[in-house]
Structure prediction request, 333 residues.
Amino acid sequence: MKWFLSLGLSLLFLPLFSQDDAISKHFNAYLSDAQFKSVYVSPKMFDVIATSDIEKMDPEVKALIKKLRGLRVLQREGQSGVALYQEANKKLSAAKYDELMTLKENGEQIRFYTMGPGKTVQELLLMVAGPDRFLMLTMVGEIDLNAVAKLSKNLNLQGAGYLDKVKSR
Amino acid sequence: MEAINRQQIEVLLQRYFEAETDIQEERQLKAYFQQETIDPAFEKYRNLFTLTESDRHIEISDDFEEKLLASIQHTPVVRLSIRRVMAIAASITLILIAGWWGMYRTQTDATESMAMEDTYEDPEEAYRQVTAALALMSSTMDKGQQMTIQSVAPAQELGVIQMN
Prediction:
C-alpha cells in the first residue's frame, strides 16, 4: 500500500517539479493561438550553443549564454497589444514578479520584470505593447542584470532587427 | 364393439365415474370416444378419454434431471476478506487515477509538447535568436536608463542632483 500511496502522490505533484518561464506558466494558452508567433530555445539547445564553436561569438554573450536555460518569445502583430499588456501586468504581479523598469517610447509601453532577488536573477522578462503589436520575451537561468545592460555598449547590436527574425512555427 | 349404443355408453360412463369399470370396459369407452362422430350429449366427456392418449407422447427430456438439480442447488456465497476488499478498492482507485492522468495528459499534451519543442534545430540560428533577444533587452534597458537621466535632467538644473 505504501508504494501505491507514494506513486499517487508523485503523480499529483509531478507538474510542480518542472520549473518554467512566465510564458509557459501564465500565457500557455497563447502558445497554441494562431494569432501569436512564438519561439522557444530549450536548455538542451543552450548547452549545444555553449559548447559549439560558432564563429564571431562574443565572449560576453557566450558568458551569458552559458548560464541561460531557456528563451521564449511570444509575439502578436497587427492589433493593439494594450489590453494584453494590462492583463499580463496583473498576472505577473500576482505571480510575484518584480517590476524592474517601465518606460514609454514611440507610443509603446515597455516593462521589464524579474524573478529572484539581487542583481543576478532567475528570470528576466521584457514586455512591449503598442497600438499594433504585443511582444513578450523571457529568459530563465542565472542572469546577471549588469552584464545584460552592458552588452549594447560593447556590441553594436540592433535589437530592432530582431523582430524580423522571429519565425512562425 | 361397434354395436355399442347410447344406453350402454351411459351405463359405462356411470360405472367409470364411480370407478367400477374394468379394463375391458374402459377400452370400450376409449374406442367409442375416439370415433369422429359421437352422440353430442357425450361430447363433453371426450377429453377424458382422448387427452390421456395424446398425453402419453409427452416425454421428459434427457437433461431434465440436470436442469432440475442445477436450479435446486444454491449459488455459492462469495466471502470477501477485508484484504481482498482492499485489494479491489486499490485497483479501482489505480484505474481511476490512471484514467484521470491519461485525460489530463492528453488535454495538456497538445499545448505542452508544442511549447517544449525547440523552434530551431540549428544551434547557429538559435544562437542568433538568443543574441538578438539579449541585444533587444540590453538596448531597451539602456534606453530606460537614458530616459531616467533625461527625466532627472530638469532637477539637475535646479542643482539638486549632480550629474557628470
Notes: The interface with chain A takes residues 86, 90, 93-94, 97, 101, 110-111, 114-120, 123-124, 126-145, 147 of chain B (CB under 8 Å). Residues 119-164 of chain B form one domain.
